[in-house]
Amino acid sequence: MHPYVQERLSLNYELAISYLTNRLRKYIEYAGAKGGVVGISGGIDSSVTSFILARAIGINRSFFLLMPSDSTPKRDIEHAIEILNILGVKENWKLINIDEIVDKFKKVLDENDKRITGNIKARVRMILLYSFAQRFNYLVIGTGDKSELLLGYFTKYGDGGVDVLPIGDLYKTQVRSLGKYLGVPEEIVKKPPSPALWEGQTAEGEIGVDYETIDSILYLRFEEFRETKEISEMLGVSEDVVNRIDKMVRSSQHKRSLPEIFRVSKRAINSDLRYPREWFYL
Predict the structure, then answer these.
(1) 182 pLDDT higher than 90
(2) Would 102 be classed as within a structural domain?
(3) Are the C-beta atoms of residues 87 and 54 closer than 8 Å to each other?
């Protein structure tokens, strides 16, 4: 990562952890929920989110779902269980293999396209998370980070279907460093990120750029609004790479927004009625 960007993305770890845990605790309380449920995958994002949830409300009010499929590497399952052991989780977790459910969808749809099947997997997991959340009166705690959200590298109404995103304003490289500080095992911190929606899938391999470069481009382009040529020269990458990242962000805007409501009244729901949740508790 470019030293200039690295310096600006450096974290005060204790301050970040304090803010995220307090904010999450209050968010759950304001929602009138009793706790939170996380889909734990064995990756860095879900590991850090699980640590934050446990600190925010305690293990007894947290529930963890491990939902592997035929494309889930064995080490991911092992890493997820390792995180649960580190957190001291005993009974409040469940492993559900989703292959049987996904196969029923594929049979009905007569579908074998790996991307369509991958998105079905993500949406099946969302359904399971919300089923357990409703059972316990919990919120679904999302695990997406800022890099993935900006790139649109998530499934709409799949892993993007959540109630709150505690680490959604942290770039992937920041999540890695925060995870290391929290005590997430080094093998998980350094593991190539992957939603594992099909065998051999990795985020960096699919996008074609490492996250150090991705985060540098995202920061310079969308937080400092620098031009493509300047970013290219500064990072020593081609303008095509910068443009590719830029296009991913722009074309995925719909994934970061609620469905648009066409306004015919004086006040439409999504654009005009944006009351802070806290107002209802004043």
Answers:
(1) yes
(2) yes
(3) yes
The answer to whether residue 238 sits within a structural domain is no
Q: How far is CA 25 from CA 19, 95, 140, 162, 166, in A?
A: 10, 26, 13, 16, 10
Task: Please compute the mean of the pLDDT values over residues 149-156 and round it to a whole number.
Answer: 95
| Structural domain that includes position 85 | 3-201
Give strand pairing partners of 63. 37
DSSP β-bridge partners for residue 262: none
What is the structure's pLDDT at 253?
94
**In-domain check, residue 245:** no
* Domain at 181, CATH number: 3.40.50.620
- The answer on pLDDT for 254 being more than 80 is yes
Counting the structural domains of the chain, the total is 1
Q: Residue 201: pLDDT band by 50, 70, 90 thresholds?
A: confident
Whether the per-residue pLDDT at 83 is higher than 50: the answer is: yes
**Per-residue pLDDT at 282:** 45
- pLDDT in the model for residue 96: 98
Helices of type H across the chain: 3-8, 13-30, 44-57, 74-87, 99-109, 114-136, 146-151, 172-182, 186-190, 203-207, 211-222, 228-235, 239-251, 269-272
> HSE of 256 in the Cβ direction (CA atoms, 13 Å)?
19
CA angle 219, 241, 73 (to 5 degrees): 85
Token pair, residue 53, equals 């949830």
In DSSP terms, which residues pair with 62 in a beta bridge? 36
Contact 188, 86 (CB under 8 A): no
User: Does residue 270 lie in a domain region?
Assistant: no
